[in-house]
Amino acid sequence: MACRITELVIDCADPQRLADFWCEVLGYVELGWEGEDHLEIGPPGTGFGGPQPTLVFGRSTEPKRGKLPLHLDVNPTDRDQDAELERLLAAGARKADIGQTGAATWHVLVDPEGNEFCLLRSRVEAAEN
User: Fold this and answer.
1) Residue 10 CB contacts under 8 Å (≥ 6 apart), including other chains
2) Can you give the pTM of this predicted structure?
3) CATH T-level topology, domain 70-121
4) Is the dihedral of CA 69, 34, 13, 88 positive or negative?
């Protein structure tokens, strides 16, 4: 028997702001608050325990110190990479300069709180709920 990832917990200053952003990016929905400080989002119709992990945004007053040791990679599901990049930028992502040479096939972006994530080139099938 093995474990599987059921949720990712992300510390942040404004859980609602990040939840709104990542719901737009991933097509997730708000699943609810746990207390006043933790907001969970996940796939519509599935929620916690489904085939995709949920994201929990926990309010933290600790300042972010440098690059996080973990980041998310996302792939477009219903458009090419260029169109998806434009959609993510319109949703509030920003391009990040981490010293890319221009040879990479992915784009490094940051969410509204400055957390890095990458938009990869390959188009993948949308996840089944």
Assistant:
1) 18, 55, 56, 57, 58, 115
2) 0.87
3) 2,3-Dihydroxybiphenyl 1,2-Dioxygenase; domain 1 (3.10.180)
4) positive
Q: How far apart are CA 18 and CA 26, in angstroms?
A: 12
Region of 101 please: left (phi>0), alpha (psi -120 to 50) or beta.
alpha
Question: How confident is the model over 15-66, as pLDDT tens digits?
Answer: 999 999 999 999 999 999 999 999 999 999 988 888 899 999 999 998 877 7
> Which residues fall within 8 angstroms of residue 82, CB to CB, at 6 or more apart?
none
Tokens of 108: 């490094």
CATH number of 1-60: 3.10.180.10
